[in-house]
Amino acid sequence: MASKTLYSQRDPMLKRDGFEDILEERRNSSDLKYALRCYAPVLYKGVTPCKANMLKNIVLQSDQLHYVINKVSQESGKAPDIIQEEASVILEEMAHRLQISTVRFFAFALTKAFKTLFQHVCVNEEGIQRLQQAIQEHPVVLLPSHRSYMDFLLMSYILYTYDLALPVIAAGMDFMGMKFVGEMLRMSGAFFIRRSFGGDKLYWAVFSEYVKTMLRNGFAPIEFFLEGTRSRTCKSLTPKLGLLNIVIEPFFKGEVFDVNLVPVSISYERILEESLYARELLGVPKPKESTSGLLKARRILSEDYGSIHVYFGQPVSVRSLAQGKVNRSKYNLFPRHIPRKPMEETQSFVNDTAYRIVRLQEDNMVLKPWVLMASLLLQNLEGLELSVLTEQTVWLRGLALSYAAFLDWPDHAPTAKVVSSSLALHRGLACVSGGRVSLVVGEPLGPVTPEEALFNRAVSVLSCASYRNQVLHVFLRPAMLAVAMHTAASSKKNDVYNCFSFLWDMFSNDFILCPGDTVQDFEEACYLLVKTGAVQMPQQDIVMTDIGQPTLSFFNGLLEPFLQGYQVVCRYFCEEASEGLTEKQYIPAVRSFAVKLILAGNLRCYEVLSSDMQKNALAALLRMDAVTKVKVADQVTLIVNKMAVNSIDNILGGKLPTQKAVLARL
Amino acid sequence: MKWNGWGYSDSKFLFNKKGQAEFTGKRYRLSGMVLPSLQDWFENTFGASVNHKSPATPALNASAVPPARLNKAFVEDLKATGIPFSHEAEDRVFRAHGHCLHEIFALREGKKFERVPDMVVWPNCHNDVVKIVELACKHNVCLIPYGGGTSVTSALECPPEETRCIVSLDTSQMNRILWIDEKNLVAHVEAGIIGQDLERLLNESGYCTGHEPDSMEFSSLGGWVATRASGMKKNVYGNIEDLVIHIKVVTPRGVIEKSCQGPRMSTGPDIHHFILGSEGTLGVVTEVTMKIRPIPEYQKYGSVVFPNFEAGVACLREVAKQRCAPASIRLMDNEQFQFGHALKPQVSSIFTNFVEGLKKFYITKFKGFDPHQLVVATLLFEGDRERVLQHEKQVYDIAATFGGLAAGEDNGQRGYILTFVIAYLRDLGMDYYVVAESFETSVPWDRVLDLCRNVKERINRECKERGVQFQPLTSCRVTQTYDAGACVYFYFAFNYRGLADPVHTYEQVEHAAREEILANGGSLSHHHGVGKLRKEWMKESISSLGVGMLQSVKDYVDPDNIFGNRNLL
């Protein structure tokens, strides 16, 4: 049963499928022929595909929409016809216009691009077979990880290649800015949603009914990104629940027998947007998507981006997941076409499911040797002897494998070769000079201020961190345990657990930690560390073994930037934050506080400059009630409880046992 | 009557030497006929073969029946009243079961019985029942009322944990119409009367009740009251709760009845509703006053073919909306339509054959109906001739707007035959490794389609998961329409070859199907009742407070649990 695989403790010997390179065939045959080949995918229970216009009509005539239209009309005093017209306009702006000719165009163009950009595009064909089966049996929702703009074109490209039904994809409205490209994407199956439409009932109704109609009728698999946006850090983002709620609801209401969720893990050896992301995190605003911008991106075409691995996970049946968790008969007493806030039971189920799916995505992310090397380099910012790096990479490889990492280590290649080719591919990030490997810092033009130098260094650290981040999910739980052992007042299991649980709570915006799983995660961490011999647990204690030192210190080093980063944020709140600090001012203020510290030589952690970490730290402090938001007029102000923030700072620094902190919070 | 199957001993389906199916006896329209297409349908649908037989044990094995635990003092006192009784094994076993699959299967297999009634009594009138109940209370004997024995909810099963003497109270001798009141159009009838006898006797005076549950050949008036029965023609005559004017019930606390026969009362909650559906847990229904109607002048069957189930349901919904449902309107899904077709008797003339062929051609080729999608609604109109014809036109006009095509009286009538012979067909299936059962629910209109689809899918899935090697037959029909919803009736059957414990597998699947029904907004039961089969869902269905209310009535009326069949609660 799917639920079993999803909820069981992670099996270190996780069985995974092998990969096939889909570019290989493309390199040996005509791209045009490929783009024009016969395409006849099987659909859900053999339904005939539905024309985009017919779909719109079904949506506009649905009871669900009628209800909301009448309601909005009553509230606003506008005639229902006018609201109906508005709904129609919204739908027009939203709806996809999937056309096979456009898909063929993309198939042709992308083949050309892929062949220049990438060495391989690898897909697990068994996953494709499972997907094909699932599509015929139940409505399918594809849930890929999101690291690059490439993701959804890539997905459609793969499904086209394997003659599977093309998905309709929820895309952010910002794409629409790119006139021509936006329309092209629309014709390849994208539908566009506004980024925020909080209170707009009509918009929500049109949107959710549009998605549900496609799902109920099984016209096409629905695809969206649980993470909501591209992860700029290469860590998985905590899931957004809106769309997942929408696609699961038809199951609870009995409108479909089941819904299959298919996690898809897309791993890039090198991400196209690599340095763009780092700059964005450092506060250079992201360029507005524009067609000309995309054309400029053409220079990207001259570089080598290694390979892509796409892993289609086991379809997860919502029905089996919900078994015993959600009582569907609670939906019996309310008309199904009237929109309702999901019940608490449902909400927590959807939340839980979302987290588990993201973890499944993480599990099947393919890691390259460079990811391990980046993790080591970041712990040695002053550089490493090549031989030492090689030796440690080999050691780390062993560790990663024993923690069930999905490592793509070339077969039968000497380690030195593996290391050197990784360095070659990432020569923009690291270089070897005089037998030492160190991070490359972009050479600025002309004279530079100390701030600019710092900024350049930060770009390379953050870029490198985006690789280290890819391995974090493998080591996260044992690493938190290592830190907890380090900071706990004693080696008593209870004390260590308290520490662990504090960290778990603290970092639950930065990492994917399933709500309510603290104990399970703790046990998993203990199990893994004991299994690999780094830790032993005599009676009620947790202690390091004789051979545990390298592992534990690596783990401590791995999380060090996060601990430091959060501490800097705490210190900012205690020392620098002024009364009436607004939410908007927060990020630039923390950034300049950190810059000051680094320039003064009091801080060596560059990662705190990342707006991602700053936001997550704030979210954690808000969650722990150390900082509270107050809305004054149009501004959101942050009110700081300095005592509480200070004690959190002290625990993170290991100066205060966890128990006290809990008291301080109260 | 058969001791280990449905109905009359002379009527049964069998495959003759030529491998053709025939229905023996003289009682039914199909009796004595050869049904040439049944074998193909049977073999193709179930993957069964007429060569693989699973015959029943020929006779009751008396040693498999536990000895009677008689309460001597009770027997002595009972003798004194002169009310006939018996403790023969056959009599006791016959009243130890209803017609659930597991009950019939056990009889056929000659399984050992865990608990059966220790004796059977046959009261002749209300006063006899009063005496029996008094004696039962006096000697702490457990009473289980027995009417027609057609229960499909394990309601007649004796609780194995019951240590007292269990007495089956058979009402079959209380079968008289006591009076007919033509001014008010009511009849006062003893509750043991069997449906078809009641109808026949009333017909002699020019009246009918119009209450025709599918089991009416064998089920009793008292049983209808005790289970909240529903009849095929409820659209004209109403369900049992609409038909009943007055009920007399003997309980351990005494006799319950109202003091008048006013057609409607505002006197607190209607006490009839404690009795209706009480499933023999409170007492014995002895006499009932019920509405009667003059026999309708004209009756006409009809049928409509729809391109698919969705269109059919939409049409029935519209008919219900316009409140113009004929006496009966049922929508059979494609599987049931094909099933019905397999029961077509041999056509004697080439001409009929030709006409049939033409009809088929017209519907499938000319009108483009997919033979694997099309469904048929069967209709029964009643009333004076002119009104019937008018009514018929109205219904056919509505049907046409949903793509329905009139498909003749014959098809309609055949649909109703299926319901009377279906239980005989189950016996045939069991001779060839096929187990089958039916179950029902009621559901709001907007959920009918979703419920039907999900329940079928759930059954298919559960069968697969539980190792059933052949595709099961799952079929449903919308069998009653109401203002706010419909009653849906499911048939479910599978070939059990290769299964160690087919009955257990069957029960697991039925359990899952019921869960699916409840999750999709269906009720626990529309008319079969709860019995012991569905007790576990009562709390969920009517809330624990609701169960508590019923329990407190039980505790007051029957503090010593004399009526100890343990149904319902």
UniProtKB/TrEMBL annotation, chain A:
Asked if the keyword Membrane belongs to this entry, the reply reads yes
What does UniProt give as the signal peptide span?
none
Annotated keywords: Acyltransferase, Membrane, Transferase
Q: Pfam families under this entry?
A: Acyltransferase, GPAT_C
InterPro entries assigned: GPAT/DHAPAT, GPAT/DHAPAT_C, GPAT/DHAPAT_LPLAT, Plipid/glycerol_acylTrfase
Per the record, the pathway is:
Phospholipid metabolism
SMART domains named in the record: PlsC
Q: Which residues form the Phospholipid/glycerol acyltransferase domain?
A: 140-269
Q: Does the keyword Membrane apply?
A: yes
**GO:BP terms for this protein?**
ether lipid biosynthetic process; fatty acid metabolic process; phospholipid biosynthetic process; triglyceride biosynthetic process
Q: Record's SUPFAM superfamilies?
A: Glycerol-3-phosphate (1)-acyltransferase (SSF69593)
Instruction: List locations, semicolon-separated.
Output: Membrane
Recorded GO CC terms? mitochondrial membrane; peroxisomal membrane
Q: Name one GO molecular function term.
A: glycerol-3-phosphate O-acyltransferase activity
The membrane spanning regions, by residue number, are none
- So what family is this one in? Belongs to the GPAT/DAPAT family.
Name of the protein in question: Dihydroxyacetone phosphate acyltransferase
Please give the organism: Salvelinus namaycush
TrEMBL record, chain B:
Q: Annotated Gene Ontology MF terms?
A: alkylglycerone-phosphate synthase activity; FAD binding
Query: According to its UniProt record, which cofactors does this protein need?
Result: FAD
Q: Which reaction does it catalyse?
A: 1-hexadecanoylglycerone 3-phosphate + a long-chain fatty acid = a 1-acylglycerone 3-phosphate + hexadecanoate; hexadecan-1-ol + 1-hexadecanoylglycerone 3-phosphate = 1-O-hexadecylglycerone 3-phosphate + hexadecanoate + H(+); a long chain fatty alcohol + a 1-acylglycerone 3-phosphate = a 1-O-alkylglycerone 3-phosphate + a long-chain fatty acid + H(+)
**An annotated GO cellular component:** peroxisomal membrane
Q: Which residues are FAD-binding? A: 145-151, 227-230, 279-285
Gene Ontology annotations of biological process type: lipid biosynthetic process
Q: How does it assemble?
A: Homodimer.
PANTHER family in the record, alphabetically? Answer: ALKYLDIHYDROXYACETONEPHOSPHATE SYNTHASE, PEROXISOMAL (PTHR46568)
What name does this protein carry?
Alkylglycerone-phosphate synthase
The gene that this protein is the product of is: LOC120058263
